[in-house]
């Protein structure tokens, strides 16, 4: 895929049940946020019919924690689709509070057919919705 990924900002709601015994956001909450952000990214940029025909299953998450988050922090998860290979999609999600990076996440997902629950490839025109084409294209 050529072009630049369209960034998608997902507003995170830090809730009381995200806070652990140390007074900051539990690591498991970051995973919940990434999953919600990636699915929202898909639903926001993909055509309505593609959203209805496809579901996503997470295959792998690799999270690097940088700084703690706290209750009532203004947190944003910025999602980028790095590439699509077959039925797999590779994402980078950066979770920030203002200018501070709280966590960096690399994840891979499998696209599945909503009816059969079998892996499904996306069409080129659907994939292109997530990227800005080069100016000379």
TrEMBL record:
The keyword RNA-binding does not apply. InterPro entries: 4-hydroxybenzoyl-CoA_TE, HotDog_dom_sf. GO terms for molecular function: fatty acyl-CoA hydrolase activity. CDD domains: 4HBT (cd00586). Keywords: Hydrolase. The keyword Ribonucleoprotein does not apply. Belongs to the 4-hydroxybenzoyl-CoA thioesterase family. This is Thioesterase.
